Amino acid sequence: xxxxxxxxxxxxxxxxxxxxxxxxxxxxxxxxxxxxxxxxxxxxxxxxxxxxxxxxxxxxxxxxxxxxxxxxxxxxxxxxxxxxxxxxxxxxxxxxxxxxxxxxxxxxxxxxxxxxxxxxxxxxxxxxxxxxxxxxxxxxxxxxxxxxxxxxxxxxxxxxxxxxxxxxxxxxxxxxxxxxxxxxxxxxxxxxxxxxxxxxxxxxxxxxxxxxxxxxxxxxxxxxxxxxxxxxxxxxxxxxxxxxxxxxxxxxxxxxxxxxxxxxxxxxxxxxxxxxxxxxxxxxxxxxxxxxxxxxx
Length: 297
Prior knowledge:
Blueprint (H helix, E strand, L loop, with lengths): L2 E7 L5 E2 L4 E10 L3 E3 L2 E11 L19 E11 L2 E3 L2 E10 L12 E2 L3 E11 L8 E9 L13 E5 L16 E7 L3 E3 L4 E10 L3 E16 L2 E16 L7 E6 L10 E2 L3 E13 L4 E11 L2
Parallel strand pairs: 2-11, 14-21
Antiparallel strand pairs: 1-3, 3-8, 4-7, 5-6, 5-10, 9-10, 10-11, 12-13, 13-15, 15-18, 16-17, 16-20, 19-20, 20-21
């Protein structure tokens, strides 16, 4: 006998803030009446920390700090053992979105080494012969907007062979001069990152100009920290040998779920950086790095 179990939230966008109520319905569809041994619903908020392979072994003492951090844990019995009639049954539910003890609800974030996730799980227990059913449904938590206004402070940059670091032989570098600015490095997460870049001169033709958004995740405890930078997205803003003296706009939207307001706690940190990458035709790679501070207003 086929039964379908589903969790539907009242909010289409599934976005909630601390202190609000997560409400929805559990829907059960079956052709004929069905016996069950109880229906339960649980809400969980977990921070999963993972070490990169290069860190494992170096920090053996670390493992105690890398166990998951539980932010929310609620469990309710939706229905006692009994019978569900044939057809479609809807059971409404409500959960208050409050942190466990003195914990703080961090914003939903899907990273590589840090994952902050909130979910609802419904379990329907059945007799020994029939398989138990379960259904998961993720919802998104946004942190409370900060009261203070973010005042954009433009950041100007100039890239020449002399400003570059990590170079073996500076004398072999072609001559170039690239200027530009970012409108702000303290950014509102719901608004795009903007600015412009101008190639004033370059001896070698330019192949491509790219914007790279990087997440910097730090996991650890008093014994030591593992800091890993990984790419979130890469956008090409110019291709080929661009006109010299022409302003090229910088425009990048911060992707949902893969970015969150800059976060710093005792066990982990989530920070973001932007790289402006210029690739020359002789495959020289020029990178200018800017740390970003993301916030929600």
